Amino acid sequence: MRVLVVEDEQLLADAVATGLRREAMAVDVVYDGAAALERIGVNDYDVVVLDRDLPLVHGDDVCRRIVELGVPTRVLMLTASGDVSDRVEGLELGADDYLPKPFAFTELTARVRALGRRTTVPLPPVLERSGIKLDPNRREVFREGKEIQLAPKEFAVLEVLMRSEGAVVSAEQLLEKAWDENTDPFTNVVRVTVMTLRRKLAEPPVIVTVPGSGYRI
Description:
By secondary structure, this protein is an alpha/beta fold. The protein has two domains: 115 residues, Response regulator (Rossmann fold); 90 residues, Arc Repressor Mutant, subunit A (Orthogonal Bundle). Helices cover 41% and strands 20% of the residues. The strands form three sheets. A five-stranded parallel beta sheet has the order 2-1-3-4-5, sandwiched between helices. Helix 2 packs parallel to helix 3 and helix 6 crosses helix 8. The longest helix is centred in the N-terminal third of the chain and has 13 residues. The radius of gyration is 18 Å and the shape is elongated.
């Protein structure tokens, strides 16, 4: 899942981004509304965590722009105001969910995951394919009943492949969904991660390389 965090309190923004990355999400961070519009125009995001009171371009205008684009991106709006009328107004702008500050990080993570599921074709809570079971919420992976310990990026790559339901996923698509924009697109990070993932999943191999196209399970 790829997420954009838009928050002008930089310490909070960076803390949220770090926490979501630990949950195997690819996260970009910006600190004002103008930068948010720039990123949204370039990258495809599953979820935007959007502070309402932003400098340069207000969060309301950012939310309106996302709606105007007609993209499947979901918006989780944040605000320091706990007033019910503010929450209603935010939802009427097109936000999909609303979370007042201060918030528990576990709740924010749960809401981001729930919104992320709404951007894709509905799938069972636990993904199963080729003897592998992957639980995105618990961040657990089992193969033939044996738990497999994966690093966050390995988990993210496996989740993307599992969600593709047998379709080929290109290295570029994996890079977009599992890494943030700071990753050099010309590195071999995808190939190395897939190799490590194959080793951890053990024999017989389930991740197939499709020459010139990408990978599939």
